[in-house]
């Protein structure tokens, strides 16, 4: 694995989807519809073994610092089932959005796709600021689990916490890689890797908490640009701010970026983007394809995601299911 790069993560108001201001088979990548061929890669199993859209805030001053104790975060919550009118909207490939069913992603304290995480960035003067983004895909090696999220969500060394209502934030890891240039948000990379503390490996939930008519979606691997352009699938995004949103594939705009129709907002940055296998009538088999990166203030239904394939191949990572 080549050395992890370091790059300053910045933020641009009104362009990025999050800013700090004071929505099952062993791995290989996807390129053939319905099969793990060119462009599609399988998944492995995780187990034992933007700065966000939030006002700047100091560390607690009441004598209670964010917890670094090994207390386990809570396990994943209730599954959200897409059925009835929701299923009809998905089946007809309309733009779909539901936030009410995913409100717990904000304060669940869970290590799962789309859930909120908080970053603490020290500015070198003894103070710092909090930020919030959404967890992306859980990836890694035989010995380490990372979360692949948006690079503009944090700088290398930024501490990462999860938060449950009524409890202190719990430290779960830190940014070890950030590759982002705000001047090239639509054309360049926007990737971050959070190294998860090993004591929390058993708490990681890898599949999005979404079901299609009582069938939980299952990650079959990850797909690259060639698979997406060949299959032009229906796609979904999950983040703590606006929940689940889905729509049709639009285009691959450059080596890093895919656009598709959906609705997003600040705080959803870094969250997972997946594509349904067009040859799967059950609609439960999905491919991890990107992380949420930016939106346009001129077209709220057009969102840019950063393809995960470049990071997966550069660092020889597996996407966990």
UniProtKB/TrEMBL annotation:
Bias (Gly residues) ranges: 34-50
Keywords for this protein: Signal
Alphabetical list of InterPro entries matching this protein: Peptidase_S1_PA, Peptidase_S1_PA_chymotrypsin
PROSITE patterns in alphabetical order: PROKAR_LIPOPROTEIN (PS51257)
Signal peptide: 1-24
Ranges where the record places region Disordered: 28-79
Protein name: Serine protease
